[in-house]
């Protein structure tokens, strides 16, 4: 492969300084970056290994009741942190539904947010891809696209964001902490990822050299802990990206929905916060009728970008089921098959 | 030879510590779990260089430009091999002297006939330098439109399918049978292109010494590989030494030496140093074979009692533009269900792909899923239980030929597996078994079958004065357990405890063990081993019974038996002598004997020889999402003698899980315009993970077969896929009421 410089800074300022050079890439768990480099999809001149920055490895409670997760906390460590899993069960479930145990042991919070799309034409360097090479065209259009986007896509790009983790995070108003040349700034996760428009190469709000240092969950994110689920439809029982997924979180009082959060995965270039559906739910009866209306609202603007019309109906159904599951209550312990429809019963044995 | 035969077949002998039939764990297991087993790519001879393939990203056309200078200028790059400087070959890689000789892409010209075809090889001091060198070649192409998909070209009737089977075949009058039928079904099923995806990629370490060649490479057929390489390079086969002690899976893709492996040898020749070449995962999608896609139409007629009056099975498949391998899918209907009229036919298109080849159960797997689905549709059309329907149409003789079966314990398989599964509680209609959690549950059945094939093999046995034995044959262990099963046969053949036998295999300087394919390796090489053992024991017995000083003097060959390193008088076991004593008296350090394993043509002429099985599957389907999970698989198989039940069971498990994969997961997604495979990696080319297969049971049904070979071995490597794939599809129908007609079954097919 292409020769590159390898730098392993020990402090955040050193990391920023090292990555200030054009052509730099941060290396965290490497589970995505190294694949992309081996495939010739990206070829950085310098790799800045941030995996040993100790400050980014912590989970901290904040004075305001919120939580701050360091960018280098491993996906598995976060999901298995008992207090975290109790307070944000849908996030833990989403994390554990992603990839494989080995990958989750390596993958980091920051890397998960920044993982690239799984669009096969993006990976296939012989294909035209506007994301890889702006202006080249998009070979996914008219190609093998049954898993591509149904919301927020453009004729420049129909790719989806593949993360599970980001789906409940965006539902819970997570905020991304970014350290850049001009110091630290905070961006909501909802604003962080971008829709493709005519510039699909601009996937998020990072400037070159910017470092994600952490993700914050506001205090009220924990208020959903009794009624929060993540649900993911896959083409095999485990170790597969979502065909579609949904995170649903409710606060219900006297049969009425007091608060509702809904986000969708696998449908758009970003984790999709379904605000219109939340508006339908707010104050409504906590029942299937409301959930069906919410699903319709969530998908009102959906349209197929190729051979993927089925995903719209599938998403409608997963929204209803995720809300029903959230209403039924967070299971007492994490199902053995996290987020799987085959674990709809709390604590069900995975071989039942 | 008769001596040993009678020995091994005595039940008493089996009970008294013989090795055959024992569930030994893999003898190479410790090496493998500790990482000490040396696979081809683990070798690093001194001075070795790394070769990396540059492959085509177009499906059809020619290479117009390669920036060889840029690649060569990269630090560490030693040489770039292109059609310009590729060392000469003695044989044209496009020559085809026999149907088993497949055309290879060895940089013979600048033509491109499929994506991932090698267009250059970069050789460097490091893997990284070679990789970057390959990227720097920045090829330019003159591309022509790719021919993609089963409708991508005009079809024709191939000259033959599979291994020389006629493309069109019939007995009786299918049209008349259909006309006279009380009930008829017709259905079309599609199966996709699939790739072997052995865990170990094709790898080679090649070193030349003058005109002698030393190779480490995984091979399912050492002697064939040796012969092919000898022909290509114009050197004597004896000058080529191939070591292949372990394969990380082969599944047919390592049956014949592939183009990239030969390119590794050419690269070593070019630079005059040892070279290692290892395929990247995505490079395995093209030059090393695959399972061709099929579109199969089945027509069946049934009389008022549910008896088949006709089976018509037509398959459309695809091959490459430059070679002939045609997936014999429709032939699956030749052997399984009784019908007065059967017609099978094939047509094919030529596409811009690598040549499809043998992939675990070639023809049987693709044909089985369509046939078993259609049989299920036929049963449903007759309002019959699908097991009862299969039993009603049970073939007492091989349907296409009318030959009797050498043995067929399929009825027993149906009985044992259905009882274990609990089949009798199955409601006839679909969608009748929602479970308490709201999932749709379905039960399905499929019949499994695979021919009992034998090739040719040789073995050499040695008995030594120290009482130990040696057995040599160039057998190949692909992970199936050959090191263990053959050692067991060797131990019994030599009348020794397995720990006293030094078993050597996996090297081309040993006697030719034939190919580890067609599920025939254990039968073929096993018979060679068995016969070699018998030959050396016969020599030993001669030495003893002819010497007056021996307690066995005068017993004659038929009068002794070999056990635990001693020969005993059959009529008086108090009289015995150890092998060591016999050899010492004769003043011999060792004696040897040779044996061959060959199919017996007379019995093969007289009998149809197949293994059989019955597989039952339970699936759960989410009613809203269409996500499927196989929750239970029960298979019962009758495949003649079981050498090692533990290994056999794991072959069945593996096959059955592959059947799940066939029904629900595997598909090479090919871009309809470029012909490039879009999921050439193990993240997106799905195979089942553990969570997909929670419960599998494989029952071993006893079957004595006096005709297949003296040991009574059929074969277990491939049969598990057949039957299972259809059972899963049929269970999905039973759960949902939706009949799967294309595979793998997709969520959108079940959304309703
Ligand atoms: C086979 C496979 C299956 C998978 N299945 C799933 C799945 O089902 N669900 C799912 O959600 N994910 C899945 N993943 C994706 C996986 O979650 C991501 O690869 C992982 O989260 C990336 O994290 P990482 O730390 O390894 O990132 P890296 O690979 O190290 O980095 C990814 C990108 O982020 C950048 N980066 C990393 N950290 C920072 C930072 N702190 N600041 C700025 N930039 C940064 C890197 O420069 C790079 O561009 C799968 C991956 C694989 C390989
Ligand atoms: S969908 Fe987006 S990522 Fe995929 S090929 Fe088109 S532009 Fe590239």
UniProtKB/TrEMBL annotation, chain A:
Its EC number is 1.17.1.4. Keywords: FAD, Flavoprotein, Oxidoreductase. It holds the Pfam family FAD_binding_5. Residues 1-222 form the FAD-binding PCMH-type domain. Transmembrane segments: none annotated. Coiled coil: none annotated. InterPro entries: CO_DH_flav_C, CO_DH_flav_C_dom_sf, Diverse_Substr_Oxidored, FAD-bd_PCMH, FAD-bd_PCMH-like_sf, FAD-bd_PCMH_sub1, FAD-bd_PCMH_sub2, Mopterin_DH_FAD-bd. It comes from the Bacteria. It is an enzyme of class 1 (oxidoreductase). GO terms for molecular function: FAD binding; xanthine dehydrogenase activity. This is Xanthine dehydrogenase YagS FAD-binding subunit. It comes from Mesorhizobium sangaii.
TrEMBL record, chain B:
One of its GO terms (molecular function) is iron ion binding. Its EC number is 1.17.1.4. This is Xanthine dehydrogenase YagR molybdenum-binding subunit. Keywords: Oxidoreductase. Residues 1-21 are annotated as: Disordered. The keyword Membrane does not apply. Residues 34-145 form the Aldehyde oxidase/xanthine dehydrogenase a/b hammerhead domain. The keyword Transmembrane does not apply.
């Amino acid at each position: 492969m292409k020769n590159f410089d390898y730098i392993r800074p020990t402090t955040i300022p050193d990391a920023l300084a090292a990555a200030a050079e054009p052509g730099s890439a941060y290396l965290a768990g490497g589970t995505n970056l190294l694949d992309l480099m081996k495939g010739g999809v990206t070829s950085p001149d310098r790799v800045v290994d941030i995996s040993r920055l100790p400050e980014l490895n912590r989970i901290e409670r904040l004075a305001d009741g919120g939580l701050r997760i360091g960018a280098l906390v491993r996906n598995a460590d976060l999901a298995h942190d008992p207090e975290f899993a109790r307070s944000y069960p849908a996030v833990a479930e989403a994390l554990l539904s992603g990839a494989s145990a080995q990958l989750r042991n390596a993958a980091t919070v920051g890397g998960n947010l920044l993982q690239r799309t799984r669009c096969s034409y993006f990976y296939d360097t012989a294909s035209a891809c506007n994301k890889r090479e702006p202006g080249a065209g998009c070979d996914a259009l008219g190609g093998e696209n049954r898993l591509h986007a149904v919301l927020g896509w453009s004729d420049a790009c129909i790719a989806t964001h593949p993360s599970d983790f980001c789906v409940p995070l965006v539902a819970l108003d997570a905020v991304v902490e970014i350290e850049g040349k001009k110091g630290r700034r905070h961006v909501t996760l909802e604003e962080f990822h971008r829709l493709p428009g005519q510039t699909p190469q601009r996937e998020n709000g990072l400037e070159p050299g910017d470092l994600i240092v952490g993700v914050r969950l506001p205090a009220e994110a924990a208020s959903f802990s009794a009624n929060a689920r993540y649900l993911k439809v896959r083409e095999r029982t485990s170790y597969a990206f979502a065909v579609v997924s949904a995170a649903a979180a409710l606060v219900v009082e006297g049969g009425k929905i007091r608060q509702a959060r809904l986000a969708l995965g696998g449908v758009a270039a970003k984790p999709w916060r379904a605000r219109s559906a939340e508006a339908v739910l707010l104050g409504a009866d906590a029942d299937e009728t409301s959930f069906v209306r919410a699903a319709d609202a969530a998908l009102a603007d959906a349209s197929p970008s190729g051979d993927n019309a089925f995903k719209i109906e599938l998403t409608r159904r997963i929204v209803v089921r995720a809300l029903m599951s959230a209403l039924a209550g967070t299971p007492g312990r994490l199902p053995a098959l996290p987020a799987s429809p085959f674990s709809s019963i709390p604590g069900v044995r995975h071989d039942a | 030879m008769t001596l040993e035969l009678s020995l091994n077949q005595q039940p008493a002998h089996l009970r008294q510590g013989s090795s055959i039939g024992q569930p030994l764990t893999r003898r190479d297991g410790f090496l493998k779990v500790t990482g000490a087993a040396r696979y081809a790519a683990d070798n690093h001879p001194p001075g070795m260089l790394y070769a990396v393939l540059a492959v085509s990203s177009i499906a059809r056309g020619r290479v117009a430009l390669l920036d060889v200078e840029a690649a060569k200028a990269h630090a560490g790059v030693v040489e770039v091999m292109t059609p310009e400087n590729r060392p000469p070959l003695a044989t044209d890689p496009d020559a085809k002297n026999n149907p088993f000789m497949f055309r290879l892409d060895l940089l013979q010209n600048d033509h491109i006939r499929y994506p991932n075809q090698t267009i250059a090889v970069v050789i460097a001091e490091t893997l990284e330098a070679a990789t970057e060198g390959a990227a720097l070649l920045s090829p330019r192409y003159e591309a022509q439109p790719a021919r993609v998909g089963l409708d991508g070209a005009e079809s024709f009737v191939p000259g033959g399918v599979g291994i020389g089977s006629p493309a069109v075949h019939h007995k009786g009058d299918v049209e008349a049978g259909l006309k006279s039928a009380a009930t008829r079904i017709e259905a079309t099923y599609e199966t996709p292109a699939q790739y072997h995806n052995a865990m170990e990629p094709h790898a080679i370490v090649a070193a030349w010494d003058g005109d002698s060649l030393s190779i480490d490479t995984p091979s399912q057929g050492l002697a064939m590989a040796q012969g092919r390489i000898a022909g290509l390079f114009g050197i004597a086969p004896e000058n080529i030494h191939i070591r292949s002690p372990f394969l990380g899976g082969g599944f047919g893709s390592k049956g014949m030496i592939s183009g990239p492996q030969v390119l590794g040898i050419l690269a070593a020749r070019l630079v005059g140093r040892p070279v290692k070449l290892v395929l990247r995962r995505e490079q395995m999608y093209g030059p090393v074979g695959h399972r061709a896609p099929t579109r199969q139409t089945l027509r069946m007629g049934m009389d008022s009692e549910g008896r088949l009056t006709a089976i018509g099975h037509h398959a459309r498949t695809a091959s490459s533009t430059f070679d002939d391998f045609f997936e014999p899918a429709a032939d699956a209907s030749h052997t399984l269900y009784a019908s007065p009229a059967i017609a099978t036919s094939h047509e094919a298109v030529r596409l811009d792909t690598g040549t499809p080849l043998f992939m675990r159960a070639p023809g049987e797997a693709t044909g089985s899923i369509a046939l078993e689905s259609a049989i299920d549709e036929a049963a449903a059309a007759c309002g019959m239980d699908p097991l009862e329907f299969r039993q009603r149409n049970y073939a007492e003789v091989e349907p296409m030929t009318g030959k009797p079966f050498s043995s067929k314990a399929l009825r027993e398989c149906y009985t044992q597996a259905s009882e274990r599964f609990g089949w009798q509680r199955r409601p006839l209609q679909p969608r009748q078994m929602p479970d308490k959690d709201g999932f749709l549950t379905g039960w399905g059945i499929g019949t499994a079958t695979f021919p009992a094939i034998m090739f040719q093999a040789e073995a050499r046995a040695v008995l030594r004065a120290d009482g130990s034995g040696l057995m040599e044959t160039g057998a190949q262990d692909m992970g199936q357990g050959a090191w263990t099963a053959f050692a067991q046969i060797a131990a019994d053949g030599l009348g020794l405890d397995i720990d006293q036998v030094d078993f050597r295999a996996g090297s081309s300087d040993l006697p030719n063990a034939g190919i580890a394919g067609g599920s025939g390796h254990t039968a073929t090489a096993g018979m060679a081993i068995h016969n070699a053992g018998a030959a050396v024991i016969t020599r030993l017995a001669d030495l003893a019974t002819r010497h007056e000083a021996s307690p066995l003097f005068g017993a004659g060959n038929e009068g002794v038996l070999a056990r635990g390193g001693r020969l005993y008088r059959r009529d008086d076991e108090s009289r015995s002598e150890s092998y060591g004593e016999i050899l010492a008296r004769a003043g011999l350090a060792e004696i040897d004997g040779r044996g061959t394993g060959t199919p017996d043509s007379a019995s093969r002429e007289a009998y149809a020889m197949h293994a059989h099985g019955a597989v039952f599957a339970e699936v759960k389907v989410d009613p809203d999402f269409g996500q499927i999970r196989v929750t239970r698989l029960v298979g019962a198989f009758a495949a003649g003698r079981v050498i090692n039940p533990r290994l056999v069971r794991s072959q069945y498990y593996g096959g059955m899980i592959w059947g799940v994969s066939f029904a629900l997961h595997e598909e090479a997604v090919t871009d309809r315009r470029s012909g490039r495979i879009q999921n050439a990696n193990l993240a997106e080319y799905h195979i089942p993970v553990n969570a997909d297969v929670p419960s599998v049971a494989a029952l071993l049904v006893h079957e004595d077969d006096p005709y297949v070979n003296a040991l009574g071995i059929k074969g277990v490597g491939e049969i598990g896929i057949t039957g299972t794939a259809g059972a899963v599809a049929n269970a999905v129908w039973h759960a949902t009421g939706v009949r799967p007609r294309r595979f793998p079954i997709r969520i959108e097919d079940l959304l309703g």
